[in-house]
């Protein structure tokens, strides 16, 4: 497996849970996939880019991760947890795309991640300020999250849970490129989107079909 570090992630999924699955690039390529979450710093960049973390909060977590051997150890565990979550989500979501029931083992792993993340949230009442049009109400917040290095993994677990228990899962698609197969939500008007990115995978497949036709005519 290759690892790759880049300045930014290609967010084509339309949901953080799908973008997470897509961080193992070229998942179905014969000569190996590419790991985009190579280290904890990549996980923080991903959480920032998907707007799960603010820049300030990501910076605080980066500082905690670099605060000695203990911090680095916890950061490594958080990264491994995020990857395990990703692969269990991938197993379930690709099964759904292919019209199969996910393996029971993948569901149990997801359940464990979902329950673990839920234990770190608490309900907070938000009182409406005077002369404010915003009504009072409750919201879920992450408890003691400032320097909890596992926070990105918990947030991603919540995102995966949110997607898998939503009706929008019916729009789940996989890119038509056999080596890519990135996941995305089809929000097109006629629900006919085939590619994660028409300019990349779509044009590449068109070029391959054109080349095949030309080869056929030549023979």
Topology:
Blueprint: E1 2-3, H1 16-21, E2 24-25, E3 34-35, H2 40-49, H3 55-65, H4 69-97, H5 104-118, E4 121-126, E5 137-142, H6 151-164, E6 172-174, E7 183-185, H7 198-218
Parallel strand pairs: 1-3
Antiparallel strand pairs: 2-3, 4-5, 6-7
Helix pairs in contact: 2-3, 4-5, 4-6, 5-6
Shape: globular
What is the structural class?
mainly alpha
The helical percent reads: 40-55%
β-strand number: 7
Order of SSEs:
EHEEHHHHEEHEEH
CATH topology: Jann2411-like fold
How many domains make up the 3D coordinates? Answer: 1
Q: What is the name of the CATH architecture?
A: Orthogonal Bundle
Q: Describe the strand arrangement of the main beta sheet, using strand numbers.
A: 1-3-2
Strand content: 5-15%
Give the class-level CATH name. Mainly Alpha
Q: Roughly how many Å is the radius of gyration?
A: 20 Å
Structure characterization notes:
The structure is a single chain. With 219 residues, the protein is mainly α. The protein has a single domain (2-174), classed as Orthogonal Bundle (Jann2411-like fold). It has helices at residues 16-21, 40-49, 55-65, 69-97, 104-118, 151-164, 198-218, and strands spanning 2-3, 24-25, 34-35, 121-126, 137-142, 172-174, 183-185. A three-stranded mixed sheet has the order 1-3-2, with no helix packed on it. A two-stranded antiparallel sheet has the order 4-5. Strand 6 and strand 7 form a beta hairpin. Helix 4 (69-97) packs parallel to helix 6 and helix 5 (104-118) packs across helix 6 (151-164). It is globular and about 55 Å long.
Key attributes of the depicted protein:
single chain, 219 residues, mainly alpha, Jann2411-like fold, 3-stranded mixed β-sheet, two-stranded antiparallel sheet, 7 helices, globular, disordered C terminus
């Amino acid at each position: 497996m290759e690892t790759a570090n880049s300045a930014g992630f290609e967010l084509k999924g339309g949901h953080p849970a799908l973008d997470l699955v897509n961080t193992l690039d070229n998942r179905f390529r014969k000569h190996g996939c590419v790991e985009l979450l190579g280290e904890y710093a990549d996980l923080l960049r991903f959480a920032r880019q998907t707007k799960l973390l603010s820049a300030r909060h990501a910076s605080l977590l980066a500082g905690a991760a670099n605060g000695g051997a203990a911090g680095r150890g916890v950061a490594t565990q958080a990264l491994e947890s995020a990857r395990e979550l990703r692969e269990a989500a991938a197993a379930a979501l690709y099964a759904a795309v292919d019209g199969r029931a996910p393996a029971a083992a993948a569901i149990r792993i997801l359940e464990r991640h979902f329950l673990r993340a839920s234990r770190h949230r608490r309900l907070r009442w938000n009182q409406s300020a005077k002369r404010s049009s915003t009504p009072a109400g409750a919201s879920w917040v992450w408890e003691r999250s400032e320097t909890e290095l596992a926070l990105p993994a918990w947030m991603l677990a919540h995102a995966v849970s949110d997607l898998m228990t939503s009706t929008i899962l019916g729009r789940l698609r996989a890119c038509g490129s056999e080596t890519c197969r990135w996941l995305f939500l089809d929000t097109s008007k006629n629900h006919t989107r085939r590619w994660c990115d028409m300019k990349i995978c779509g044009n590449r497949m068109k070029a391959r079909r054109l080349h095949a036709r030309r080869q056929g005519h030549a023979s």
